[in-house]
Specification:
Elements: H1 2-30, H2 32-39, E1 46-48, E2 51-53, E3 72-74, E4 82-83, E5 97-99, E6 107-108, E7 121-123, E8 131-132, E9 145-147, E10 155-156, E11 169-171, E12 196-198, H3 209-213, H4 217-220, E13 223-224, E14 230-231, H5 234-245, H6 249-252, E15 259-261, H7 264-267, E16 275-277, E17 296-300, E18 304-306, E19 316-321, E20 325-326, E21 335-337, E22 343-345, E23 354-361, E24 366-379, H8 380-410, E25 454-455, H9 482-486, E26 509-510
Parallel strand pairs: 2-3, 3-5, 4-6, 5-7, 7-9, 8-10, 9-11, 11-12, 12-13, 14-15, 17-24
Antiparallel strand pairs: 1-2, 15-16, 18-22, 19-20, 19-23, 21-22, 23-24, 25-26
Length: 511
């Protein structure tokens, strides 16, 4: 019984030794540190602490498996054309920087970034990407910088960047984008922390200038769209001129690179499809009005908000009122600082006019903005009433002028232009004594002194003298005055006048 037991033990011992060695080898392969040390510095990559550089190694795929402690992975300047989901089969929790530029990359899997959720910097520039599909970057909630310039991107799904809530800088220049991605900076799906959006050197022809004008200055400061085939217009000039006056980097740094094509009507005067500088539109081409910063105006009893529109986000803001009084929470002023740093004034009073100053301070930047407020001495409704009154007065004056003109030119012919008017005994003549400035009855005084009244000379009495009366000043032969006879008067002498034009004189003639 003991011999078989000994043999069994001996055989078992030999097999157990082999099993033990196999277990040790498998354990060593599964130890993270051992696997890392085996693959960390192979021949195709260069390792320096937590940096793995595989640049310019003619790779067609990503080396796998990668060390779990990798923070920076450089795969640029290779021939990796497709980034599949299995390129990172295991999670890389410490990977912050991934460089994949200059690879001829034309395909991105929708699950390519599931195991690298801690990425903060992703470089996909200088590749052959043509479109950004929906939710392609959804897993990258910590991503801050994304480089996509120098690709062939022409289509960007509106949900491509959904989930990338921490994205701060997005470079899309040198692509085939034809539509400005307004949703990234304005719509509900906007990227709240985005401070730089570069869509320069694309194929954008039109900009939503009205929407861009309403953006905060800290967004406009990092919004670049130069070197696009924009169509010239005064709205485009006004937008960029405003940004230039505010010294926003996007307009200040690339002033000469903002160019546009003249519309067909304007280009027909020179050369078709002429490209000119946007800042030249105010003088040389379209005669756009020169842009000037306008001060704020307000009416009595109005509630007004003054914005401290700084070029940088999240700055501490302090307001000074006219007279350098600091706006404080416990002050007795009608002004108060809102949570977003703007100043609310209301109800507005006449003494609120003056210069307001906003001091904005952060760890790296300081800004000072000035707002000049002018308060009208009436309410907004009163201003409307005044306008209505002025309009009514103007209409009344015009109506009066029209009636006067109608009276002058559309009334029946006057008696002095009717040949037979003076022969009708029942009618009152224009020569009647109603125009007399003296009594019409005979006085004992001499005729030369008292018997004087205003008269208008009738041209029919002047025939034969070419419109003139007795140039020698002598009295003509006395004829019976028909009108005087009808009124019970005696004879009268004809007036001596220089010209028949006196009929229309404003100065009465005395005879």
């Amino acid at each position: 019984m003991g011999q078989p037991l000994h043999q069994t033990t001996g055989g078992g011992g030999s097999g157990g030794g082999l099993t033990f060695l196999l277990c040790v080898c498998v354990a060593l392969l599964r130890v993270p540190g051992a696997a890392g040390s085996a693959l960390n510095c192979h021949k195709t990559c260069i390792c320096a602490s937590n940096i793995v550089s595989c640049s310019k190694m003619n790779l067609t795929g990503v080396p796998s498996p990668l060390p779990s402690y990798t923070v920076v992975l450089d795969l640029s300047y290779n021939d990796i054309s497709r980034l599949r989901a299995e390129w990172a089969p295991d999670e890389l929790p410490k990977l912050h920087n991934l460089l994949l530029s200059h690879n001829g990359l034309h395909f991105l899997s929708s699950e390519a970034f599931l195991n690298v959720r801690q990425l903060r910097y992703l470089d996909l520039s200088s590749n052959k990407l043509r479109q950004l599909e929906e939710f392609i970057f959804e897993a990258l909630g910590n991503l801050e910088v994304l480089l996509l310039y120098n690709n062939h991107i022409s289509q960007i799904d509106r949900t491509a960047f959904s989930g990338a809530g921490n994205l701060q800088k997005l470079y899309l220049s040198q692509n085939q984008v034809s539509r400005f991605p307004l949703e990234l900076v304005k719509d509900k799906s906007r990227l709240e922390k985005l401070i730089l959006l570069d869509v320069s050197s694309n194929k954008i022809k039109a900009l939503p200038t009205a929407d861009l004008r309403e953006l905060p200055a800290w967004i406009k400061n990092g919004l670049y769209f130069h070197n696009n085939p924009l169509v010239c217009g005064c709205d485009l000039y006004s937008l960029l001129a405003h940004w230039y006056i505010r010294k926003l980097n996007s307009a200040l740094d690339f002033k000469d690179d903002y160019r546009c094509f003249l519309p067909a009507a304007a280009a027909a005067q020179t050369v078709p499809k002429t490209q000119v500088g946007v800042f030249e539109l105010s003088t040389d081409y379209m005669n756009c009005s020169t842009f000037k910063e306008t001060d704020r105006e307000a009416f009595l009893e109005q509630t007004l908000i003054l914005d401290c529109d700084t070029k940088h986000k999240d700055m501490s803001k302090t307001w000074l009122m006219p007279g350098n009084a600091v706006v404080s929470a416990g002050g007795n002023h009608t002004a108060k600082v809102l949570p977003d740093g703007s100043l609310q004034i209301g109800p507005v009073r006449p003494e609120d006019s003056g210069n307001y100053t906003c001091f904005a301070v952060s760890e790296a930047h300081n800004e000072t903005l000035y707002v000049v407020l002018s308060v009208h001495n009436f309410t907004m409704n009163a201003g409307g009433d005044s306008l209505n009154t002025a309009y009514t007065t103007l209409v009344g004056c015009l109506a009066s002028v029209v009636l006067v003109l109608m009276y002058l030119y559309l009334t029946p012919c006057r008696c002095f232009c009717c040949p037979d008017a003076g022969k009708k005994g029942g009618e009152d003549s224009i020569h009647s004594s109603m125009l007399s400035v003296t009594p019409t009855h005979e006085d004992p005084a001499p005729k030369g002194e008292l018997n004087r009244h205003v008269a208008f000379i009738d041209s029919k009495e002047l025939q034969g003298q070419n419109g003139k009366l007795n140039p020698n000043g002598e009295d003509d032969e006395e004829d019976p005055d028909e009108e005087a006879g009808m009124l019970g008067k005696g004879r009268r002498k004809k007036s001596v006048a220089e010209s028949i034009s006196s009929v229309f004189s404003d100065t009465p003639m005395v005879v």
